[in-house]
Amino acid sequence: MSAQYIFYMPEYIYKHPKKEEYIELVQSINDEHTFYDEDGLKWDRVYTPINFNTHSKIDAFDKQAFTDKTGKMKGTYGDMLDYSKELSIEREERLGYDPVKQDYFKKYEKEVGKKHVEDKPKGSSENNFASIVD
C-alpha cells in the first residue's frame, strides 16, 4: 500500500481598485502575490480570515473517516495518537467497551502469545511479583 499525498495550491483574491470586481487566482505560496490586469493596473489583494476547523467531529466508529482526517492533520504523531485516544474513549462511553481496542488486543495476543499490558480487567493490577485486585 502506498501513501497518497494531496497538495492544495492556495487561492488568492484580488479586488479592482475602483470597481466592485473580484478575481480569484490559484498561486504557489512562493509566487509574488500581486495581480496586474491586461491594462497594467495593479489590483488590491483581499485578505480573508483563515478558515480552520481543527475539531470537526467524525463518527468514532468510522475507520475511513479517521484515516481521512488524520491523513490531512497538521501536527505530530503524538497528536494523532491523542485524537485516536479521544475516539476510543467515546466508543467506550457509548458501548461500555471499545471494539477497536478489543480487536487490537485479540490480534496482539494471537501474534505475541500473551495479553497486551493494557488488556487487563479494570480494578486489578498484576506483574511478575504481585497481583492486586480491588
Beta-strand percent range: 15-25%
Largest sheet: 4 strands, antiparallel
Using the CA coordinates, give the radius of gyration.
Answer: 26 Å
Helix content: 25-40%
What structural category do the secondary elements indicate?
Answer: alpha+beta
Count of extended strands = 6
Our measurement of the CA-to-CA distance between the termini, rounded to an integer number of angstroms, reads 45 Å
Q: List low-confidence stretches.
A: none
The number of helical segments is: 3
Globally, the shape reads rod-shaped
Topology order in helix (H) and strand (E) letters? EEEEHHHEE
- Spatially, the strands of the biggest sheet line up as 2-1-4-3
Count of separate structural domains: 2
- Average of the residue pLDDT scores: 80
Describe it for me?
With 134 residues, the protein is of the alpha+beta class. The protein is built from three helices and six strands. The protein has helices spanning 63-72, 77-95, 99-112; strands at 11-15, 22-26, 35-36, 42-46, 124-126, 131-133. The longest helix has 19 residues, at 77-95.
Compact description:
The protein has 134 residues and is α+β, with helices and mostly antiparallel strands.
Topology:
Blueprint: E1 11-15, E2 22-26, E3 35-36, E4 42-46, H1 63-72, H2 77-95, H3 99-112, E5 124-126, E6 131-133
Antiparallel strand pairs: 1-2, 1-4, 3-4, 5-6
